[in-house]
Amino acid sequence: MIRMTVLGILCWVHAAAAGTHSLQYFAVGTTEETGIPKYVEVDMVDGMQYMYYDSTMEKPTFRMDWINKTMGPDFWERRIQYIELGHNMVKSSLSKTVQHFNHTGVHIYQSMGGCELDADGTRRTYASHAYDGKDFVSLDLETMTWIAALPQAVYYKRMREADTHSQQVVKHYFEHDCFKSLKMYIQNWSEILQMKVRPEVMLIPRKARKSPGTDVICHVTGFYPREVEVNWVRDGEHLLDEGVWSGEVLPNGDRTYQLRKILTVSPEDQKKHSYSCQVDHASLDEKMDVKWVPGAALNMGFVAGGVLAALGLIIAVIIGVHIWKKRASGARSPDYTPAQR
Predict the structure, then answer these.
(1) With 50 as the cut, is the pLDDT of residue 326 above it?
(2) From which residue to which does the signal peptide run (predicted)?
(3) Strand 257-265, strand 244-246: pairing
(4) For labelling alongside 320, which of 6, 236, 280, 330 has CA 20 to 30 A away?
């Protein structure tokens, strides 16, 4: 039985460093009807979704209006060729892997990859696959060899390396077309990529689960770009690490991001100290400092421009991150064990 839900359909997001631009694709195929299309692909530039396609559509949809209005038939033909290539690859890989493991029921096959371009011209590329939420194979683009993440994936490595035509198509995409597309998107979407949206900060207290104290959630949302620094501060000067749990930076459905940091405070410390959540972001002239008032149901530090957006497909991408990268808990099939790292 598959251990991923619809919220885990896609699997990995890479956070580009400042001065770095990235183009990424995420694709997933399913064996049976699950309430979502059997194939879904999402493409992103600098962490923002710009293209969506699924197996119920004739052609992809772009969130960049200039693409829909100005790009000629050559662009669309090339774009559709890559989508068909990805669709066929995921469909074939899923079918062969299910047969190889002699599995039945619902299973998924995930594919991700992309390229990064630094300000100094340095280039990087990457490509990985997963089966049922576990690392399966990755591609060494320098040697064009596939690396099996577990012994049961060796068959797939050999199958892909034997398909010389597909290998050349993949090589050309990662060495040329990926960077060509990235540069085009950066040039024409610069106004969006360079925007700065200010965050909203909310402090939400709740009873601690494993102690008699209080968990205080610092929920920072609605900000862009992605890079943000959030810290809990005691008595206005001491940055806290102990007793603080930090979540991942997750995208909202409106191209902005959110982050949570949870501080656990004992009843004794609540009486002796003051606590505040401090936020530093490129959109702010100075750091935000939102003080927690014990006994208050909700403390808010609001800066116009940030909203808590409805979660959509992009959230599915991120939740899949935790399932692929951190591994979902639960029973594992005896014939399929993740490789040791």
Answers:
(1) no
(2) 1-18
(3) antiparallel
(4) 280
